Amino acid sequence: MDSKSPFIFLTFFFVGSLVALALHIYFFSPISPQILHVPPSSLVKSFDTHLQEVTKLGEGLVKDPEDVCVDKHGILYTASRDGWIKRLHKNGSLEDWKWVNSSSLLGMTSIASGGLVICDTEEGLLKVDEDGITTLLSQFNGSKLWFADDVTEGKDGSLYFSIASTKFGLHNWYLDLLEAKPHGQLLKYNPQTNETTLLLDNLFFANGVALSADERYLLVCETFKFRCLKYWLQGELKGKTEVFIEDLPGGPDNINLAPDGSFWIALLQLTCKGMEFVHTSKIAKHLLATFPRMMNIVQGQHQRATVIKVSEDGKVLKRFDDPEGKVISFVTSAVEYDGNLYLGSLHANFVGKLPIDH
């Protein structure tokens, strides 16, 4: 046998394998990606450590509480991945309040009539109160309501809520990040008339929503654009949209109105340090989308926690961090009540509590 034959065989085998892999990725990739701009501010290391001082409420009794809210009686609510709506009373006791039998509960808000409205990414908008669980909205324009993310109530009872993605779901949301195209929506639901209105379309992973104190405008977070938009509900600019804050040092998740009229925003580190190049390479995006286990190498949400307080005119007033995720990471919501900040996280078995005035 020719001494070159093994070398030739290995060469053809290697090249053939690469071609086969490339064809597999090309034909079976679930995304059609575009380049994502990652702001330089998100790459700067923070040296603040205030979030390492959190008190762990209900430790071991909740699982990945994505959002928290407080009702008019000062009772704190959160949804656990085990399907329970938990509530924390002022005396510190934690109660298994209502069983929803869902692991896909995200944003929630307390409502004036009593109880909560919760976003279930698979079922739509749910109302939960002492009488039980009711599905408020499960369809829009003849299609199933998919990936409802966050919700807030206006003084007239209207519900404003976000759809993170109309293409991907909660359990493969990272594909929306890799594709980097606008599949999100902002909607309004009127419980009195049962009418649903599309306010904004083509949003880059529409996430947290919050009304201003006077309800003249509504804010919605675009996680993969590292910005929040302002949608005017009243006045001469009614129906218009403008940027509220941009180039954030992390992808904005939930946003909540503070008692002084400012806003608290939870920020996510979407990508591990040194892996940012993934968002500038369509080949890398296709590769990760086709072999999703590789996303564990890229995702950075578990490495840090950041929350910021932003004024009504879009200026950062405060910033709290756990820069290495030593105590808490993947913080997804921050709610201010009675001098404390209550924190939800998709990587915790507790609700964080932090005194605001240090």
Automatic annotation (TrEMBL):
Presence of the UniProt keyword S-adenosyl-L-methionine in the record: no
Sorted UniProt keywords: Glycoprotein, Membrane, Transmembrane, Transmembrane helix, Vacuole
Coiled coil (residue ranges): none
GO cellular component: endomembrane system; vacuole
Membrane-spanning segments: 7-28
InterPro entries attached to this UniProt entry: 6-blade_b-propeller_TolB-like, Strictosidine_synth_cons-reg
SUPFAM superfamilies: Calcium-dependent phosphotriesterase
GO-annotated molecular function: hydrolase activity
Segments forming domain Strictosidine synthase conserved region: 155-235
One Pfam family it belongs to: SSL_N
Subcellular location: Vacuole
Residues annotated as signal peptide: none
Similarity annotation: Belongs to the strictosidine synthase family.
Protein name: Strictosidine synthase conserved region domain-containing protein
Organism (species): Beta vulgaris subsp. vulgaris (Beet)
